[in-house]
Design goal:
The chain has about 800 residues and is an alpha/beta fold. It folds into three domains: about 250 residues, 3-Layer(aba) Sandwich (Carbamate kinase), CATH 3.40.1160.10; about 210 residues, Aldehyde Dehydrogenase, Chain A, domain 1 (3-Layer(aba) Sandwich), CATH 3.40.605; about 150 residues, Aldehyde Dehydrogenase, Chain A, domain 2 (3-Layer(aba) Sandwich), CATH 3.40.309.10. The protein contains 24 helices and 27 strands. Helix 17 links the parallel strand 15 and strand 16. The relative contact order is 0.08.
Length: about 800
């Protein structure tokens, strides 16, 4: 990047500044130079450039800012402002090259997606300071060597460097660095230096606007900075008083002014803090503000400005609100954190919850953070109720499910009508509610109510530590649960009842395909909770929160329970940051048919396990058959039954080797079909079956069919799965069928809870110690007390 002063061949208007970047020149006097450059010159310029003129698929009429983060993905024109703390190193002398490279990569990715990217960057002063310090040290060392005649140099003092001189020395080097980085992504960059006067002179404003539009049209990234080499001190004018008045005192105000002038969709301000806090960052009670609305600044206390740069957070907020008033959405985020700086810009554009989002539209209901706090507070109140009161709430909810049956089914009908043609048949079946389903739900809820009488506060262990010092271990709620479920509205009252029984606060995030059903079921749940004043303990998240953003609320959520497809569970397990996830990613259930299996039992068990509800996670996916059963009447009966039920058969490698004309060979032995499809494989023994299950299974549910009790017990003891059955359908792996009343899910993990997770799986413990002025020093070698550690009887609670 360089500037030349010579007679412009295009406009013939005498000597003036022309800006050059790579192989393309722009006249700053007449920036829309295509209107006055001769056609031959236009052809000549285009022959120099290899930058493609692309058609951008993104389009948006500028006028109002985006109301929600999820809309940011539609932003076409974006300004990224890099604060001094982002661009410079910690010693404030030199550039943070790693961060800059990452930022350039992200900007390049968005530019190549068809967006129009602009950078407002600091860093010239820091880069110039590094260069000037180097020159001064070199000069001083040479002079000292000449005059002292000594082999060693005295300690040299570096004079205070004037900022304008540093900027003059650093601007060219900073731009050269940017240009070299962008070239790696086949993107051209152009530098523009401005001062406050350029925005107050109407002709210069039009020139600047035209230049920027021309650069963007040619797929070039403008890199804008205040011309700190000549910039005068900020004028004490009426700053930020309206859309047309803002003084460019720093790069925050420059970025805001540029964003409004260019009618950009999004301004991203990167600094060295995560965003805007409700109190100074680092204080004990400081909370990151997710969404900031005009007028909220009165309730915010601003801290000191960052270690470098002209402005602080207050200046950023003022600039952001000014840009928001001009129709540009704004996000302030951290561009220095090593764990997020590599994707912070792209995350913001994708609508992820990063930094503070400025919006003019306040949501109708509470934010998800506020819902989390309400669930925490409501859950604690719920835990203090008597067991009979919690049971009463659940009984009332069960009654409402049957009393309000017509309203529930009407809402469900709306969901089914909207999902028709969009959801596969198995998912539609999960989405559907019926009178029989509601009756079964009510029965299950009453079972939960009955079992909740002796749940919270149950004494598990009592120990006399010493005289008058007794210890108890008691059951308590986990805290706040986040349950994410797809296409399963019947899941909502089940999970809510379990949370109520265990005294847990609950956040529910249902699929949008069941929005009508979920809404009425949640209203009924809150109606039941209201009878004892704990309505807020169960919250339904209706905002546009992405699941990944919910999984980051580690200070509000204690356990995540996903209910849905294996892909959903995997995504949540990957996204959860510091929050335990209870669940299973796959339900690859096996049934081993032993050589001593009963002919009458096998077909019934296979049919029920595979065909009764093939979309369920506890449906059979792989049938293992002892090789002695091949070409026997039993084997033929199994195959005939599967054909009648229209089950598509996939042959395992061993099974395929026995057949002349085999079904399609299985692509993977680790497949959860979730449909009328089944893998059949041949094994040589019960040990071979166990080895196969351990290698290809998901530790969910596995079954043996045999009349040999010794073989069955061997299988039950050696298969390492959450549920292991003998002569029973895989479909029994269910909380309701286990007598748990309902389940929040089936866990294949090995910590805390395993298998169908009911009420007990939603409890943890705490220790209660009751003493009489006991101190540890009394139990020292020369102390007056000795440890007893006597086990005491556990009192029986009245559960009638």
């Amino acid at each position: 990047m360089f500037f030349l002063r010579f007679v412009c061949e295009g406009c013939r208007e005498g000597e003036h500044t022309v800006i050059w970047s790579m192989r393309i020149g722009f006249c700053l006097l007449y920036p829309s130079f295509y209107s006055h450059v001769q056609p031959s010159a236009i052809r000549h310029v285009r022959s120099w450039s290899n930058i493609p003129f692309i058609t951008v698929p993104l389009s948006r009429t500028h006028g109002k800012s985006f109301a929600h983060r999820s809309e940011l993905k539609h932003a076409k024109r974006i300004v990224v402002k890099l604060g001094s703390a982002v661009v410079t190193r910690g010693d404030e002398c030199g550039l943070a090259l790693g961060r800059l490279a990452s930022i350039v990569e992200q900007v390049s990715v968005l530019q190549n997606q068809g967006r129009e990217m602009m950078l407002v960057t600091s860093g010239a002063v820091a880069f110039g300071k590094q260069r000037l310090r180097h020159e001064i040290l070199l000069s001083q060392s040479v002079r000292q060597a000449l005059h002292s005649g000594q082999n060693h140099l005295k300690e040299m003092a570096i004079p205070v460097l004037e900022a304008r001189a540093c900027a003059a020395a650093g601007q060219s080097g900073l731009m050269a660095l940017y240009e070299a980085m962008f070239t790696q992504y086949s993107i051209c960059a152009a530098q523009i230096l401005v001062t406050n006067l350029d925005f107050h002179d109407e002709q210069k404003r039009r020139n600047l606007n035209g230049t920027l539009h021309e650069l963007l049209r040619m797929n070039i990234v403008p890199i804008v900075n205040t011309n700190d080499a000549v910039v005068p001190p900020a004028e004490p004018n009426s700053d930020l008083q309206g859309v047309n008045v803002i003084s460019v005192k720093d790069n925050d105000s420059l970025a805001a002014r540029l964003a409004v002038e260019m009618k950009t969709d999004l301004l991203i301000v990167l600094s060295d803090v995560e965003g805007l806090f409700d109190s100074p960052p680092g204080s004990d009670d400081a909370k990151l503000i997710d969404i900031f609305y005009p007028g909220d600044q009165q309730s915010v206390t601003f801290g000191t400005k960052s270690r470098v740069g002209m402005g602080g957070m207050e200046a950023k907020v003022k600039a952001a609100l000014w840009a928001l008033q001009g129709g540009t959405s704004v996000v302030i985020a951290n561009g220095t954190h090593p764990k997020v700086s590599g994707h912070v810009i792209t995350d913001i554009v994708e609508g992820k919850k990063v930094g503070t989002f400025f919006s003019e539209v306040k949501p109708a209901g509470p934010t998800v953070e506020q819902q989390g706090e309400m669930a925490r507070s409501g859950g604690r109140m719920l835990a203090t109720l008597e067991p009979e009161q919690r049971a009463e709430i659940i009984h009332h909810l069960a009654d409402l499910l049957t009393d309000q049956r017509d309203e529930i089914l009407l809402a469900n009908k709306k969901d089914l009508e909207e999902a028709e043609g969009r959801l596969a048949a198995p998912l539609l079946k999960r989405l559907s509610l019926s009178t029989s389903k509601l009756n079964s739900l009510a029965i299950g809820l009453r079972q939960i109510a009955a079992s909740s009488q002796d749940s919270v506060g149950r004494v598990l262990r009592r120990t006399r530590i010493a005289k008058d010092l007794e210890l108890e271990q008691v059951t308590v709620p986990i805290g706040v649960l986040l349950v994410i479920f797809e296409s399963r509205p019947d899941c909502l009252p089940q999970v809510a009842a379990l949370a109520i029984a265990s005294g847990n606060g609950l956040l529910l995030k249902g699929g949008k395909e069941a929005s009508h059903s979920n809404r009425i079921l949640h209203l009924l749940t809150q109606e039941a909770l209201s009878i004892h004043g704990v309505k807020e303990a169960v919250q339904l998240v209706n905002t546009r929160e992405e699941v990944e953003d919910l999984c980051r609320l580690d200070k509000m959520i204690d356990l995540i329970i996903p209910r849905g497809s294996s892909q959903l569970v995997r995504d949540i397990q990957k996204a959860a940051k510091g929050i335990p996830v209870m669940g299973h990613s796959e339900g690859i259930c096996h049934m081993y048919v032993d050589s001593e299996a009963s002919v009458d039992k096998v077909t019934r068990l296979v049919r029920d396990s595979k065909c009764e509800y093939p979309a369920a996670c506890n449906a059979l996916e792989t049938l293992l058959i002892h090789r002695d059963l091949l070409r026997t009447p039993l084997f033929d009966q199994i195959i005939d039954m599967l054909r009648v039920e229209q089950v598509k058969i996939h042959a395992g490698p061993k099974f395929a080797s026995y057949l002349t004309f085999s079904p399609s060979e299985v692509k993977s032995l680790r497949t959860e079909y979730g449909d009328l499809e089944l893998c059949i494989e041949v094994v040589d023994s019960v040990q071979d079956a166990i080895d196969h299950i351990h290698k290809y299974g998901s530790s969910h549910t596995d079954v043996i069919v045999t009349e040999n009790e010794k073989t069955a017990e061997f299988f039950l003891q050696h298969v390492d799965s959450a549920c292991v059955f003998w002569n029973a359908s895989t479909r029994f792996s269910d909380g309701y069928r286990f007598g748990l009343g309902a389940e929040v899910g089936i866990s294949t993990s090995r910590i805390h809870a395993r298998g169908p997770v009911g009420l007990e799986g939603l409890l943890t413990t705490k220790w209660l110690l009751r003493g009489q002025d006991h101190v540890v020093s009394d139990f020292s070698e020369h102390g007056s007390l000795k440890y007893l550690h006597e086990n005491l009887p556990i009192p029986q609670r009245n559960t009638n």
